[in-house]
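retry 2 of 3: previous attempt timed out while embedding nicotinamide-adenine-dinucleotide. Reduced batch size to 1 and resubmitted. Inputs unchanged:
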Amino acid sequence: MRPSFSSLSLSAASLSHTPCLTSSLTSQKMRLILLRSALKRGASKAIRSFSSESAPERKVAILGAAGGIGQPLALLMKLNPLVSTLSLYDIMGTPGVAADVSHINTRAQVAGFVGDDQLGDALKGADVVIIPAGVPRKPGMTRDDLFNINAGIVKGLCTAIAKHCPGALVNMISNPVNSTVPIAAEVFKKAGTYDEKKLFGVTTLDVVRAKTFYAGKGKVPVESVNVPVVGGHAGITILPLFSQATPAANALGAEDIKALTKRTQDGGTEVVEAKAGKGSATLSMAYAGAVFADACLKGLNGVPDVVECSFVQSTVTELPFFASKVRLGKNGVEEVLGLGPLSDFEKEGLEALKPELKASIEKGIKFANEN
Ligand SMILES: NC(=O)c1ccc[n+]([C@@H]2O[C@H](COP(=O)([O-])OP(=O)(O)OC[C@H]3O[C@@H](n4cnc5c(N)ncnc54)[C@H](O)[C@@H]3O)[C@@H](O)[C@H]2O)c1
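retry 2 succeeded.
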């Protein structure tokens, strides 16, 4: 997979090296210094590439921008030099978030919109709409437990997207992604605006986790790791393909791969439990959402060979939606790539995930058609 998100990966790489450098300074002080210099480099690179590359105008809208994911995602998109307009929408709190983020000296012009009356203006002219609106999990909840609340929120927001920016690429973060993407598809079909090339379930956090856990266990440099993650975005429907991971980590045996697979599948729950009732992954999710949105923008701008995993309409299996590697282009999905060779363990995982994923997809379609 082509590494994307060039300017921010610099910052992320710098921060990830923190543990090697903390011998003489306290770790907190060191982290602050690294954060400052990483952001400075990100910002100056952003300004450099804005003036020298004259990237096209691109409007990105974030729906749910005042939330746990929305706020750091707004920050990261403000740092992205490919964004010229950043529209922040929520049912509350966006004027403050927008005022705050707008003071950062990067290209994107920021505007905050709050409440239903302003949703249309938030969306008009958007090239990419990112949706982290909704409620997050608490300990003991599955992503499916969020269905009743988030399904309605997603349906409402997608109805507005169909009306105000029907050509935008939609990046769905709200859970359960396995159902909210089919809900969005149904809403768009009813409105006559559905284009399967433009609807994405964001599964990038599964990829981010798989890369991190694999690098840690396999003792390979994390910034060079690639791991495709296929299937869906909940529990066993998340299927990391460690047999295709690069670089090869020869020391990893079958039990290690099993443990890595389980940890990737349970990564969200790990965070939910550690936050003990205060929500689910927000910072790592914002990073993952920013990586995926950046890939979408690069594709729109004609950068060749941009590939990320995403939950999209698919013929890779018999299921109508499935996550796999996707090549992004000027119209969104350019090509849904196949699974490649699977190990026996992955083949078993693939068969095991299908009934649950099928049920979640059908639940979404049913909801959209009955409500
Ligand atoms: N795809 C993934 O990998 C992934 C990872 C983590 C979390 N999530 C999901 O992302 C969603 C948001 O999580 P969070 O931690 O940011 O939650 P949060 O509660 O902190 O923020 C959600 C925000 O959505 C807003 N909101 C609610 N209804 C809205 C509406 N109709 N229009 C616009 N905004 C609305 C809320 O006001 C709030 O600001 C949850 O569904 C969570 O499960 C997805």
